[in-house]
Amino acid sequence: MRQINVSLGQRSYPILIGPGLLGRADERLNALPVKRWAVVADETAASLYAGSLGLPVYAFPAGEGSKCLAVYESLCRRMLADGFTRADGIVALGGGVAGDLAGFLAGTILRGVPLVQMPTTLLAQVDSSVGGKTGLDLPEGKNLIGCFYQPSLVLADTDCLGTLPRRQLSSGMAEVIKCGVIGDEEILRHLETAAKPDLPWLVERCCRYKAAVVARDERDGGPRRLLNFGHTFGHAYEAAGGYDAYTHGEAVAAGMMQMLRWQVSHGLGGQALLDRLTPLLERWELPVRLPWDGAADYLARDKKRAGDQVTIAVAQRAGAGRLLTVPLASLLEVE
Question: Which residues does the UniProt record annotate as the domain 3-dehydroquinate synthase C-terminal (predicted)?
Answer without folding.
Answer: 172-304
